[in-house]
Amino acid sequence: MACSSCSTKDGQPKGCKNNGTCGTDSCNKLSVFDWLSNMSLPQGVEAFNFVEVRFKNGRKHFFRNTENLSLSMGDVVATEASPGHDVGMVSLAGELVRVQMKKKKVAPDSEEVLKIYRKATQKDIDVWEEYRNREEAIKKRAREIAIRLKLSMKISDVEFQGDGSKATFYYTADDRVDFRQLIKEFAREFNTRIEMRQIGLRQEASRLGGIGSCGRELCCSTWLTDFRSVSTSAARYQQLSLNPQKLAGQCGKLKCCLNYELDTYLEALKAFPRTDTKLYTKKGTAVCQKIDIFQGFLWYAYEGEWMNWYKITAQQANKIIQSNKNKEDVASLEEFEVQLIETEKQPDFNNVVGQDSLTRFDKPKGKKPRGKNRKKKRKGKPSKNA
Predict the structure, then answer these.
(1) Distance CA 304, CA 291 (A)
(2) pTM to 2 decimals?
(3) φ and ψ at 124, to 5 degrees?
(4) How is the chain split into domains, by residue range?
(5) b/e 257-292 (16+ beta carbons within 10 angstroms → b)
(6) Which end of the chain, C or N, has fewer beta carbons within 10 A?
(7) How far is it, in rounded angstroms, from Cα 52 to Cα 57?
(8) CB neighbourhood size of 69 (10 A)
(9) Residues with Cβ < 8 Å from 156, sequence gap 6 or more?
(10) Cis status, amide bond into 83, omega within 30 of 0
(11) What architecture is the 134-203 domain classified under in CATH?
């Protein structure tokens, strides 16, 4: 999902000229807006000497700016790696990095926080782009080797380190895979250090990107960082049909967006009785058939008369349940339904567009007189001066 027009040269993008942040936001996965950039620090307060660097497919790490370089968002930097160095783009700098490190529970004095060597030179960028261009061909060759070895795994992506000293192969697999022979063949074939990293199906979709059924880019590849478990109960609470083809995303699992409005639905369902609670009346026992969370209605049907549904409100259903608990007699559901019908207002449709009858163009218009007949009519008309 990246555009090739935003490639950088000397740290400046060629395409949208937006200082490292794509104007269409399509080639910056998990991009960040620094809302503290226009605020100056008080006197005597030192700037936070850490930056956030983004690598391929949204992979981000925090680095220590030990050389006190003047860095801003979009700068291409050479960072410490094991072994050698890596090349990435600064995605965040300033005081907002402190907030992000606290949110992700990364201590500033941790050994995992490496340092930045320098701003990337043109030679660093040329080597980086050379190895980036080789990744697709190597990924194809790696899949062929894995198929030949009959390994039940899928190599989804390949990422070279900035100096080309190491290649990381991302793969997905259902079970544990013995890839010792695979690593030997990879090292012999590609002549570099090999690292295998297993990822989940959701992480694979976030790395590859794509367009969801809503028409927008996948949430996992644009802004979503924490992947919470999604269960089918989330769809049941929202009254959605349990259709795997509609509920599953491109990763093959349930869509993450099923959790977005789940809390609102759970809050609204507190006013509704349980759907498995039966209503006992003199006419018979009623069972819940359907609920409408937005309008607050429930539909009940008597046992044995499943074709006749009766619509009542959630308050009325709770009232009947309370009467059953108090062992008070309830005649039938018709009494409550009649009260509901009387309070309903019929919509009044008005002609707000100002159109006439739909058949106004059906009648043909009369033809105007032409030629001699038109001249005769003009002669027969009295003049204005007469």
Answers:
(1) 20
(2) 0.68
(3) -60, -40
(4) 4-35+44-120, 134-203, 228-269, 272-343
(5) bbeeebeeeeeebeebbeeeeebebeeeebebeebe
(6) C
(7) 15
(8) 15
(9) 170, 171, 172, 199, 204, 207, 208
(10) yes
(11) 2-Layer Sandwich (3.30)
